[in-house]
Amino acid sequence: MAIVAVILAGAVAGWAVDLLLSNAYRANPLLGAPSRCPDCRARARGVEFLPLIGGFVRPRCPACSSRLWPRFVLLAAGGAASFAACYLEFDDVAQALLGGVFCLAFLALTATDMEQRLLPDRIVLSGVILAICTAWLLPGMTMTDVLLGGAIAIGLAVGLLILSLPFGSGALGMGDLKVIALMGFLLGPRSLIVAVFIATLSAGLFAAVLLAGRRRRFGDYIAHGPFLALGAIAGLLWGSELWDWYSE
Length: 248
Fold this sequence. Notes:
With 248 residues, the protein is mostly helical. It contains 8 helices and no strands. Helix 1 crosses helix 3, helix 1 (2-24) packs parallel to helix 4 (93-116) and helix 4 packs antiparallel against helix 5.
């Protein structure tokens, strides 16, 4: 029954973040009236408040008819799946809930980057503070790992920024660098390296496919948030195992 409770907690948490997320795009109160439409900012009403179902029943904004980005699926379903994965990996309800919260934060960053090309400081910096205060409670982590991982991540972010300069100013933004710092404080040194490798490899392969298919041109914008989130979640769940496997 514990895993059922964890899954429900993840789905409800994802649904709540979905309703609040649009307020994080701009300088609006996070607890203000929620909106599902990033274009006209119309308030969510009635059926739109229902987890998952609301988005399928009303896929367009009733005020301006814009098609709504399906973050309701990414966050509610993704929250349930990530909370469950954390429970199966950590085998502890408290650690699963804490890990699930961080996974949900990265899913929220994925949504904002794909929908608005933003990685809001409200999410990233709040995540950094939460990681510094609580990441040492996760399996295999100590406060030394938290601080050392953060320091390495900051240095790594600066190095990646320098390496990205020949590819144009949009190749790697400050938001991406802040997310890498968050990953460091959350994951510690070893899992951070695994996470950044996964993120870099997946982003490179995706960009290569788009360039080969002429869907993008060299220098065009490609959201890095989803790939950083992929690496971060993989590092959180399996970073130590992957590091040990590679080191053998």
